[in-house]
Amino acid sequence: MSSDVHTQPLLDAREVTVRFGGLTAVDHVDAVFMPGELVGIIGPNGAGKTTFFNAISGVIRPTSGRLMVEGRDLSGQAPHRFAARGLARTFQTPRVFGDMPVRENIAFGLQFAGRRPRKYWLWGEEASVPWALRTPESILSLIGLSAQADLPAAAITPSQQRLLEIGMALATRPRLLLLDEVAAGLTEVEVEAMARLIRRLRDELDLTVVWIEHAVTTLLRHVERVIVLHQGRKIADDVPAAVVRHPEVIEAYLGDEMAEEAAA
Ligand SMILES: Nc1ncnc2c1ncn2[C@@H]1O[C@H](COP(=O)(O)OP(=O)(O)OP(=O)(O)O)[C@@H](O)[C@H]1O
């Protein structure tokens, strides 16, 4: 095993399979995520995208396969073990505390930042935490919710709740951020703003980001690599320009019209 952190994958999922009774939701999926990557995951409804996220964040235990986080085998471990290694995620339906002010939701996430990724232990605690992730206020400013800080989370708009959930994930000071349809239900303008925020988070916070989204044309413009799932299998894993020309991807998901639009 290499000890070089620059060439070692942050997450290496090997032959991950998840079965629910007779249904194979994720079928022997291999995926490697390197430090600093911004990767999209796309595929039709029911393709296994969320189940794959659940598996790689420890939310569900894969039926088989291995999950290596920076060379460490976390297969079968509980979600907090994945969080302790620097994984954070959002859910399709935002999980915020509606009665609590927006600021307190972020403060809650910060409580879990005590279990930092190794990097922070090695280099000394606060010194290596990016400024933008130090306090609830700095995180709210980063995600653009400073003006809403004192409102109950239930009182902000659904798109603001999605931002808040990202803020809560960031508060744990992750190294790998898994985003599950954070642009669902947003207007076209909001989707584009979300994509730009995601890029900024990756660029400014030294993060690896994996982003599941159905807003394919926007996603393809912003990510460097795309994984396509179909019926639980990985059918493509390549740069966007190659994925939109992939015959199986066009047939299973994009269709000719969307493939042309995305290619353009
Ligand atoms: N807890 C569960 N028990 C049984 N079947 C499940 C469970 N979770 C997911 N499935 C099934 O596994 C398959 C994959 O579902 P999954 O939600 O991972 O797909 P997806 O690609 O995220 O879909 P979408 O784009 O609609 O969110 C589907 O057939 C779904 O019905």
Strand/helix succession: EEEHEEHEHHHHEHEHEEHH
Q: Compounds present? A: adenosine-5'-triphosphate
- The fraction of residues in strands falls at 15-25%
Provide the CATH architecture of the largest domain. Answer: 3-Layer(aba) Sandwich
- Assign an overall shape: globular
Outline the low-pLDDT stretches. Answer: 1-5, 115-124
Mean pLDDT equals 88
Q: How are the strands of the largest sheet arranged?
A: 6-7-8-3-9-10
Q: Report the sheet with the most strands, covering strand number, pairing sense and barrel closure.
A: 6 strands, mixed
InterPro entries: AAA+_ATPase (IPR003593), ABC_AA/LPS_Transport (IPR051120), ABC_transporter-like_ATP-bd (IPR003439), BCA_ABC_TP_C (IPR032823), P-loop_NTPase (IPR027417)
Pfam families: ABC_tran, BCA_ABC_TP_C
Protein name: ABC transporter ATP-binding protein
Domain ABC transporter: 11-256
Descriptive overview:
This protein has 10 helices and 10 strands. The chain has 264 residues and is an alpha/beta fold. It has 2 domains: 176 residues, P-loop containing nucleotide triphosphate hydrolases (Rossmann fold, 3-Layer(aba) Sandwich), CATH 3.40.50; 79 residues, no CATH class. The strands form 2 sheets. Strands 6-7-8-3-9-10 form a 6-stranded mixed beta sheet, with helices on both faces. The chain is globular. Bound molecules: adenosine-5'-triphosphate. Adenosine-5'-triphosphate (ATP) binds next to β2 and α1. The site of adenosine-5'-triphosphate has 11 residues, from β2 and α1.
